[in-house]
Design brief:
Structural class: mainly alpha
Shape: globular
Distance between the termini: 31 Å
Helix content: over 70%
Number of helices: 13
Strand content: under 5%
Oligomer: single chain
Order of helices and strands: HHHHHHHHHHHHH
């Protein structure tokens, strides 16, 4: 309901910066009445609808980007979204464009960080003089990738806001989207590490890396050492474990145990 009300409000609102949140078009008129439907070119109507969708998507991204600057104050919340909108000159009610609330802000940050990793990792691999086609360098690349990606969360870990983010992502209604982002992340990491496996090991490798990533993330949230030194030592041990688990059958067994341990630890951290 909030989303509908916000959309209706935005259609007739001009922001302080002069940004128009909705452009009144023939398509809008025909959406509200059937009186002229016989005179409308379906292709033109669809084109206008697509334009409107793109326009709204652009606004959503702008608000999400701006709202990230308010997370440390207001958390991953509708309040942060409203403050982000207002900073751009849009009305605070624009948070109604995000029906799932704060988790949409979390997922936006997560996706941005994943894309940044994918963009910067090739240069980091080259700088570290690692070869993705050389045996055993793949785990060194994964080690590099996991630390680099987790460091992107560091600011929110310091402020204690990442615990809130993980709690939102773990909610049943949000978990599918959260797991999809994690799956894309570990797949991208393996891709940069040169993995071309066409068999079942493709799945086990990614499951093991996901367990390593999440367990290291939980370690980071509880780490009080300088520059998360204990976390990176923990990560080194997990990478050593992966080296020992190159055999697929052992990897499958260890993955099951790792995921059970991870879920137990997550419940403890979240107070569940």
């Amino acid at each position: 309901m909030a989303s509908v009300l916000a959309t209706r409000f935005l259609r007739n609102t001009r922001g302080l910066t002069g940004n128009v949140l909705f452009r009144w078009t023939p398509a809008s008129r025909y959406q509200s009445t059937d009186a002229f439907t016989d005179d409308v070119d379906p292709k033109e109507t669809q084109r206008l609808k697509d334009e409107e969708t793109v326009y709204e998507t652009e606004i959503r991204h702008k608000i999400l980007d701006a709202a990230l600057g308010y997370v440390d104050i207001s958390g991953w919340s509708k309040q942060a979204l409203a403050e982000g909108a207002e900073s751009l000159g849009y009305p605070g009610v624009a948070h109604g464009l995000f029906p799932k609330g704060g988790v949409e802000l979390v997922h936006h940050f997560y996706q941005q960080s994943n894309e940044r990793l994918s963009s910067e990792l090739p240069a980091d691999i080259q700088e570290a003089q690692l070869d993705l086609f050389r045996t055993k360098d793949d785990l060194k690349i994964l080690r590099l990738a996991v630390e680099k990606r987790l460091r992107m969360n560091a600011e929110h870990v310091f402020t204690g806001k990442w615990t809130e983010a993980m709690g939102l992502m773990a909610l049943p209604t949000n978990a599918p989207s959260s797991l999809k982002l994690l799956a894309h992340l570990v797949d991208d990491m393996w891709h940069h590490a040169g993995d071309t496996s066409p068999d079942f090991s493709w799945y086990t490798k990614r499951a093991v890396l996901a367990a390593v990533y999440k367990s290291t993330e939980l370690s980071m949230m509880q780490d009080k050492s300088e520059d998360f030194r204990s976390t990176w030592e923990f990560l080194d041990r997990r990478i050593e474990d992966m080296e020992k688990l190159r055999d697929c059958s052992k990897m499958c067994e260890e993955t099951s145990l790792a995921m059970k341990g991870l879920l137990k630890t997550a419940r403890n951290v979240m107070g569940g």
